[in-house]
Amino acid sequence: MDFETIIGLEVHVQLSTKTKIFCSCATSFGENANTNVCPTCLGLPGALPVLNKEALKKAILFGNAINAQINQDSIFARKNYFYPDLPKAYQISQFERPIVGKGSINIEVGDTNKTINITRAHLEEDAGKNIHQDNYSQVDLNRACTPLLEIVSEPDMRSSNEAIAYLKKLHSIVRFIEISDANMQEGSFRCDANVSIRPKGDSNFYTRVEIKNLNSFKFIQKAIDYEVERQIQAWEDGVYKSEIVQETRLFDTQKGTTRSMRNKEESADYRYFSDPDLLRVHIPQDLLDSCKNLPELPDEKLNRFVNELNIKKDDAKILISSLEMARFFEDMLSFGASIKNSSSWLLVELLGKLKGEVNLNNCGITSLGLATLVKRIDEGKISGKSAKEILDAMLESKNNDVDHFIKSLGLEQVNDDGAIIKVVDEVINANSDKVEEYKNGKEKLLGFFVGQVLKNLKGVNPAKVNEILKEKLK
Ligand code: ADP
Ligand code: MG
Ligand code: ZN
User: Fold this and answer.
1) Cα 40 to averaged position of ligand 3 atoms, centre (Å)
2) How far apart are alpha carbons 121 and 118 in whole angstroms?
3) pLDDT cut 70: percent of the chain above it
4) CA nearest 209: which of 153, 267, 260?
5) Residue 293 within any structural domain of the chain
């Protein structure tokens, strides 16, 4: 029997606000345990939460980026459950009326485009962190009350590849609109994957299993693939009904398997009710309007690069693959480097040299440095070959002074017409027989003449030589 995979994703994005969502503690990562805390985020009796306007703004921006309906009035609710990292024994979240309603995201898998619908996106506070030692556990509440946007998709994805394409697109959107650093290692962008299967052609939905807290694209894909296999196996072994139950599972990154963590709560288990400590949120019209001003989104940038800058689509895709890369490239253009050379010197020459832990952010080459190098090529001041030598020197020394290297390595191309004309004349006089042949139509001899000139004039700009030779040989 053939099966179809059904995937719906819940993504938690930590919003990059300076302070927490309901108190003024800092959100900075990596501080000593329990130093970024106050009565509100410790859940002490009587402390009252106040909504952080920046978090609200970022949620609205996201809603606009996915063309979602924004609920001008929304409600915060208490989601009740007991866990040691949740001192109030409830999480402030949104249930009935989230800030962001239905929207959608376009993805591309292979050559096909597909729309993935977003059910909702709501604001909530994060919990703290339990740190488990050998025979005891500790609780760090620095993360408690940091702002999260939970983005819930419809069960629209049909393969782990589609799920990854969706996540990468979502990741790039939140980066481009700068609502989150979306750092996956630090947990600022993490995903719960809901996975089920059904026989091909069946339109019913079957039992979904939720795999919690995945924070790398690689593991998300592995976890989904493993889970699909497990469910298909259970079906084929005739134990689907008993084995596949609605539950929360954890992915074991060592073994590459999922294991049961707990039975899935139904929403009734959480006893949601609107939080009496918080006013209902009414978004003022001017705030709503100002959030319509979005930075350029990844797809818009891609289209502009392809249609207006005439960059090949595959190259443009790499150029927009991260905000840092897109910025780097656009900065190069703004410094006056040509489009074509900027793209190839960034994508081919520079990226081609970055290996292992070295990346665009830490390689030491600045957009101004690479732009200057490209400009010297554009101007014909150095050859491509010399530029490669200079780039190596720049990478090694982390020095971006291109003109310094041109001089110290003696790589300046001769562009001086007078000097070139002199050598061209010499070559023409010494080869009068070949000049005759050329004039009689043997045009490929031009290469010979160019070669002779280059031999006699080190570091000369070949394009210039070509131009002058052609003129002289007329
Ligand atoms: P919960 O709070 O129980 O996790 P949510 O409504 O927040 O519920 O999220 C449910 C997620 O499960 C959504 O992303 C939805 O698309 C997905 N989902 C629902 N039914 C299925 C199914 N049969 N197979 C896979 N995913 C599903
Ligand atoms: Mg959920
Ligand atoms: Zn606090």
Assistant:
1) 5
2) 8
3) 100
4) 260
5) no
State if residue 196 touches ligand 1 by the CB under 6 angstroms criterion: yes
Task: Give the residue whose CA is nearest to atom 7 of ligand 1.
Answer: 152
Q: Residue 190: is its pLDDT beyond 80?
A: yes
* pLDDT, tens only, 310-330: 999 999 999 999 999 999 999
Residue 9 CB less than 6 A away from ligand 1: yes
Q: Find the domain containing 110 and state its range.
A: 3-288
Among 263, 288, 313, the domain boundary falls at 288
Residue from 9, 102, 152 whose mutation best tests the ligand 1 pocket (most atoms within 8 A of CB)? 152
pLDDT at 370: 98
pTM of the model: 0.88
Kindly list the protein residues that place their beta carbon closer than 5 angstroms to ligand 3, a single-atom ion: 23, 25, 38, 40-41
Residue 151 forms part of a structural domain? yes
- Give the number of the ligand closest to the Cα of residue 144: 3
Q: Determine the distance separating the centroid of ligand 3 and the alpha carbon of 27, expressed in angstroms.
A: 9
Report the separation in Å between the CA atom of 75 and the middle of ligand 1, taken as the mean of its atom positions: 21
User: What pLDDT, in 10s, does the model give residues 110-143?
Assistant: 889 999 999 999 999 999 999 999 999 999 999 9
In this structure, are 180 and 250 located in the same domain?
yes
Closest approach atom of ligand 1 to CA 264? 3
Average pLDDT over residues 253-280: 88
Residue pLDDT, tens place only, 78-107: 999 999 999 999 999 999 999 999 999 999
Last residue of a domain, one of 408, 436, 465: 408
Tell me: do 88 and 147 sit in the same domain: yes
pLDDT recorded at residue 196: 98
Predicted pLDDT at 460: 81
Cα of 122 vs centre of ligand 3, distance in Å, is 21
93 lines ligand 1 (CB under 6 A): no
48-52, 234-238, 410-414, range with the lowest pLDDT: 410-414
> Which ligand is the nearest neighbour of the Cα of 206?
1
Ligand 2 midpoint to CA 232 (Å): 24
- Residue 203 sits in the same domain as residue 83: yes
Cβ contacts of 301-306, under 8 Å, gap ≥ 24? 301/176, 301/326
Ligand 1 neighbour 8 (Cβ under 6 A): yes
- What is the distance in angstroms between the CA of the first residue and the CA of the last residue of the chain? 76
In the prediction, which pLDDT does 415 show?
A: 76
